[in-house]
Amino acid sequence: MSERVGFIGLGIMGRGMARNLLKAGFDLCVWNRTPEKMQPFAEAGARTATSPADLAAQSDIIITCVSDTPDVEAVILGENGVIHGARPGALVIDMSTISPKATQRIAAALAERGIHLLDAPISGGSEGAERGTLSIMVGGEAEQVARAMPVFQAMGKKITHVGGHGAGQMVKLVNQILVVINMLAVSEALVFAQAGGLDLEKTLEAVTEGAAGSWMLSNRGPQVIARDWRPGFTIDLQQKDLRLVLQTADELGVPVPTTAVIFNLYRTLQRAGLGHEGNHALVKAIERLSGIVVGAEAAQNNEA
Description:
Blueprint: E1 5-8, H1 14-23, E2 28-31, H2 39-43, E3 47-48, H3 52-57, E4 61-64, H4 69-77, E5 91-94, H5 100-111, E6 116-119, E7 122-123, H6 125-131, E8 134-139, H7 142-155, E9 156-163, H8 167-195, H9 200-207, H10 215-225, H11 235-252, H12 257-271, H13 283-290, H14 296-299
Parallel strand pairs: 1-2, 1-4, 2-3, 4-5, 5-6, 8-9
Antiparallel strand pairs: 7-8
Helix pairs in contact: 1-6, 4-5, 8-10, 8-11, 8-13, 11-12
EC number: 1.1.1.60
Family: Belongs to the HIBADH-related family.
Active site: 172
């Protein structure tokens, strides 16, 4: 607990993660691009910083959890970025989902200043962030993973060191392929069940614990039935991750046909102004293709 921790990015995921670090007793400093998001943390005992560089100067371990590759590059390497405040020996942990190649470039730039990097993207939705049950996939040096373990254990339940710099991001992209294809399966299955006149709650009860079970089915299936589109992870952020998958697959020469289809289905929902909804709203693309709405009675007041 002796190391001071800084946390950059208090969005859907970051705020729950930062709260769990406070609960675990860490000496925490926070910074967010929108300053008002820091206020609840200040009231709960966290220090606040005026910039990423200021936060880094006050911290031994600096965590970033922001939206996209350019955001990570800005808060770490940009003007007033972490690199300008961190001391040699400091550890930066990027828990965003970004380009594996960019991660390697950032690691090299930090290493020139004697600063360590771990890429440690996360999975488990806002629920996992709030409960401290995230899955964390970590790339970087084993010694730094061991150093960071108390911090990881305050935020996550399953922490896996998967390889060197960039490997955490590659595993996260594997995770995202599985997430969206599972959600497409959930979407097709629920539309099929609706068309067949089944009791949707009973159907989920029957299949969730069998071979068809998945995290997406258990956690997002009930939300679809309830027409509850509150995001554990938004469509817009999911699309950012799928763009990274498609770019990386292109670089590797690997076909990912189903992921590409899902990317384009999500694009139709973005065009309809639904990018702020949870990624489980993928079902709406299948509903529009079929003309069948899941949970149709509840949908009458919610669907155009």
